[in-house]
Amino acid sequence: MPMARQSMLLWMARPARQTCRTMSTTPAGVDVRRRAMLDRIIRVDHAGELAADRIYAGQMAVLGKTATGPVIKEMWEQEKKHLAKFESLLPQYRARPSALIPFWNIAGFALGAGTALLGKQAAMACTVAVEEIIGDHYNSQIRELLEDNPELHKELLETIREFRDDELGHLETGMQNEAEQAPFYKTLTEVIKIGCRGAVWVAERV
């Protein structure tokens, strides 16, 4: 009888264990989705800040000794800070860096140097176009993190907000330094924006 009672109790407990396993799949699913989201955010932001760092490096290589040099250098110093932060966030979040890091490095420098060779105004137009896309991108990420769990992502949200404000400050600096006087300003900035949007899309995935 004791054995029968024990068997009955074990059988009655079995559905409860199955229910617990079923219920636990929901948090696990949320965790998988959140993990993928954070991996994507850290990867694309790291790639973007690397490209931005290289853009300003290219501009400095051409215009560093001109009157515009100090303006570019100040923005570049902030980009170095941004890049260093995301370099530290990669291992912290166990995020995979973009497989195209060498390409972002070369493409960023080429864009910075190429526009700078067209003159100060073109370099600033490049800054305006790039920073507008980055600012919009950071705003999208902020909305995504807020919708998921503001408390859980508090530190990352603070970082992204700070960097977004820096990038929008760079945009204003570009406008204050005659960006709109660049030859074919609208065409130049639209082409750069299209390239930046494409780069963001690729870096999120590769």
Automatic annotation (TrEMBL):
Q: Which InterPro entries match?
A: Ferritin-like_SF (IPR009078), Ubq_synth_Coq7 (IPR011566)
What UniProt keywords are attached to this protein's entry? Iron, Membrane, Metal-binding, Mitochondrion, Mitochondrion inner membrane, Monooxygenase, Oxidoreductase, Ubiquinone biosynthesis
Q: What is its main location?
A: mitochondrion
Involved pathway(s):
Cofactor biosynthesis; ubiquinone biosynthesis
Query: Where, subcellularly, is it found?
Result: Mitochondrion inner membrane
The record's top EC class is oxidoreductase
Q: Which gene encodes it?
A: LOC106813298
Q: Cite the CDD domains for this sequence.
A: DMQH
Family named by the database record: Belongs to the COQ7 family.
Q: Where does Fe cation 1 bind?
A: 49, 79, 82, 167
Q: Supply the HAMAP family for this chain.
A: COQ7
Q: What's the cofactor?
A: Fe cation
Instruction: Kindly state the subunit structure of this protein.
Output: Component of a multi-subunit COQ enzyme complex.
- Topology with respect to the bilayer: Peripheral membrane protein
Q: What is this protein called?
A: 5-demethoxyubiquinone hydroxylase, mitochondrial
